[in-house]
Amino acid sequence: MRAVRSLFAALALGGLAAGSLVASGLGAPAQAQEEVPTPPHQQWSWQGPFGTFDLAAAQRGFQVYSEVCSNCHAMKELHYRDLAGIGLSPEQIQAVAAAVTVPQGVDDQGQPKEGPGTPGSQFRSPFPNEQAARAAENGALPPDLSLIVNAREGGPTMSLAS
Fold it and tell me: Which CATH superfamily is domain 55-148 in?
């Protein structure tokens, strides 16, 4: 109950602040800047020869992916066995993989068949092919999240836009 009150208080304060900005004219659209600011340099825990990941944060990130992002985005370059890298035990990996059905070739009549995933299975794509993904997403192809860091210029950096 206390957390709900705190949330409502924060929302109310945010609304008051936004209202005062609009009333004072500071809420007007920003003028184009001549120079784009560069984000400050960040020190990440995984950088350097002895860097490590925050396993709890990585596991929360996988939970968000599996509950939200996996509805649109694939991770074609990863297998369920790769979850060992974020600290999941072999039993947990087996349970995660078995919870999804993955393609398992074709049957005697040439029809595709599916079955429970194994740790060696690739992550299941939400769409059967690129055309189906584009049709579902109004022509846009959702990026493959297994390669997203490689697609970002400069690697993982803080964004001032977000």
Answer: Cytochrome c-like domain (1.10.760.10)
